[in-house]
Amino acid sequence: ELKVEQNPLFLSMQEGKNYTIYCNYSTTSDRLYWYRQDPGKSLESLFVLLSNGAVKQEGRLMASLDTKARLSTLHITAAVHDLSATYFCAVGTQQTGANNLFFGTGTRLTVIP
Amino acid sequence: EAGVAQSPRYKIIEKRQSVAFWCNPISGHATLYWYQQILGQGPKLLIQFQNNGVVDDSQLPKDRFSAERLKGVDSTLKIQPAKLEDSAVYLCASSSGQVQPQHFGDGTRLSIL
Question: Which residue has the higher pLDDT, A23 or A52?
């Protein structure tokens, strides 16, 4: 079974600072997703990364994928309080026609004013 | 477009009772997923449907869990009998294609007493 590890699990950062969340996975994959989850809410899709070297940016968030290293990063620039949430990476595999997603344990981000 | 609809939002039952959850995916999405999210963890796939056929149910505890997707649209997930370890949020998701991001509903929070 594919294993997905995120670190850190908890992240407390001050507004205006930069930080990176890391997502490592154990076997070859051709797709990686980042999701955001607010407390008591469902998951919101942030980025879809489909190839080695892919980089996507939306506002203060930028995601990248290195398939050779089996690593994705989510970089936060000049954090603001509204970014406080839990961030999940999910790695996709296609086995027997199924599009399975394996989720990491999540990184709970708290941005302190 | 309307999102993934799930009901009920909350359910409290005693162990050994049965419970059912309902999901209506985004219109036109052929693929439907059920996930279990235990507190503090990432979602774990239980079953995936393509139209009304099961693509992957390898992680579904079939002795107590069952799911169906009649007519390839709505889906129900049932637990019978429930155990204490089934306490979790049950998320339904749908997608329009194999590499497209999955769109999640708000989930059903199940508590077993």
Answer: A23
Quick one: which of B91, B1, B111 has its CA closest to A42? B91
pLDDT band at B70 (very low <50, low <70, confident <90, very high): confident
How far apart are the CA of B75 and the nearest CA of chain A, in angstroms? 18
Burial B71-109 (b: 16+ CB within 10 A, else e): eebebebebeebeeebbbbbbbbbbeeeebbbbbbbbbb
Would you call A42 and B105 a contact, using CB atoms and an 8 Å cutoff? yes
Q: Give the single-character DSSP code of B86.
A: G
- Interface probe for B, chosen from A4, A101, A102 (most Cβ of B below 10 Å), is A101
pLDDT tens for each residue of A43-54: 999 999 988 899
Residue A109's nearest CA partner among A88, A84, A89 is A84
Q: What residues of chain B lie within 8 A of the CB of A91, using their CB?
A: none
- CA A71 – CA A74 distance, rounded (Å): 10
3-state DSSP assignment of residue B27: coil
A53-90 residue pLDDT tens: 999 999 999 999 999 999 999 999 999 999 999 999 99
> Tokens at residue B74, please?
């709505």
- Give the integer Cα–Cα distance in Å for B46 and B65: 9
